[in-house]
Amino acid sequence: MPKMIFARPDGQWFDLPGLEMAAMSGNHLQVPVKPDLIPLPEGATLTLMPDAAPIGFDPEAGEFLLVDENPYKKKSEPVYAVGALLPQGFTRLMTPAVQCGERRLPILGYTAVGVEKGRLVVAAAATDEHKRWHPKHFNTDDLPELVRQRQEEFPGNRVIRQLSRCALEYGCFTAQNIFYRRWEGGLPASPSCNAACLACISEQPDQCSPQQRIDFCPQAEEIAQVAIAHLKQAEDPMVSFGQGCEGEPSLAYQVICRAMELIRQETDRGVININSNAGSTKAIQALLDHGLNSMRVSLFSPFDEEYAAYHRPQGYGLPDVRNSLAAAQKAGIPVAFNLLAYPGFTDQENGQKPWWSWFGNTACARSRCGISTVTPASWSPSTGMRPGR
Ligand code: SF4
What we know:
28% of the residues lie in helices and 27% in strands.
């Protein structure tokens, strides 16, 4: 079985041969078995979990053990848990086995990780192709120069200014695609939101959100300028509203509708998509009437109570989301679900069946609704972790 690993304060990680890898499903400690484990995918990164002590499994005693001091050091030294951040196309099955301290953890998609015969393994599964989202396509040496060129191409454009920060500082893949001029490019549009999701990556009470939410509402002309260039020139182009650095895009529907008018006056090429909580059916209907081509809706649970507990919606509820989905279906556009998967919750037997009532209990309904389970945050800042041995 894989061994547990832990990190020193300087980011070096070590394995502890006496203890096996442990993991968590919800609040339950578990020992992952072979079918749960895959080699650490290319493009994944390891991150130290601040103020979280690792837990391992002692197979002889049959017990889970907390490791809060470095067993290799005579002088007392605190140690920390390690989590793996997965690239797109992979879904975590278990989270790291930890005992958290007072400090809130940064909002990241921590996955349980261990080491077996010198090779890192994670409790995860490959759930989607990630050819185009493979990290090898991003953060390339020519990116800063491409960013400079776009800034020169669109002087004073605040959307490009924001995307420059997202691409270079946050490492956001959809922002980078705008500079690489290919595939799905991100277009942030809204500084405000009608929800307060527990794991929102752009706004958290104690500054532990990995990204800062935009503080301005772009003009339709600024949005259209960037979108037209992308849709006209990019390979297999798509532009998407609803990025990690903004609030709920549909709240800026009047600006987006005007931008879509300007865009479609210049080109009918490519897809205009929105990633949304779909809480405002009025806004979604207006966007559909102005030519929206596809929609992706984020959902934590199909149950009203759990939905409200996680998304903390203001002025709408699941029935409104259903109405927005019905409007999209009537308009005949493809709809994808951004299922916010949490091990120990989403994978519970009683948690799954209701989803199918959402999608309709037919195979074609399943295939028609693109279901992608996403580990939040499609980027992963490297914490400079390196093997300590
Ligand atoms: S809908 Fe999006 S922006 Fe709004 S709180 Fe949720 S995750 Fe954050």
